Here is the input.
Amino acid sequence: METAKQIAGKLLEIDAVALRPDEPFTWTSGIKSPIYCDNRLTMSYPEVRRMICQAFAARIRETFPDTEVIAGTATAGIPHAAWLAEELNLPMIYVRSKPKGHGKENQIEGKLVKDAKTIVIEDLISTGGSSIEAAQAVQKAGGIVQSVLAIFSYQFPQAAEAFAAAGIPFETLSHYTALLQVAEARGTIRPDQLDALARWKENPADYWK
Here is the structure.
């Protein structure tokens, strides 16, 4: 939990995550959300991206020491996968959202050896759909997906259910719960807003109707 809070704090500091409980953001799906997350901003902050890279590396060394390939999801997972692959001295690939419409029509770029034990790196997990599709693309290409690792998760219950149904493990370095704890401690949100914010992730589609 300490690492989750540290990373959540850094994401808040650089505005990679923003909380607006009284004037919610509107996502493309139409969902009203008190949080907006753009982890692409981490690329511009060496200290933050280094912290994320080292946290990913520590997790892999501890739990998946036999990892053979790092896979980044296009596009936001690619830079983090590259830094991580360099840190671990491992091959890297990246996974497109869909195969190219020309040439070899690749969905996976880079060399993926059959049965290579692979970690998929993602920047954000919301419902889990795109991350699962990327992991399944690696499986279809012959790789063995050990886990999807992401920087941050909204902790939607449907994401955990979707990953379980797909039989794909996942973990995140930080998450919504840690973010709320840090935000309250720093005065970013008021104590009276905390319960409403905590309830949002359980039923985001209906909360602000």
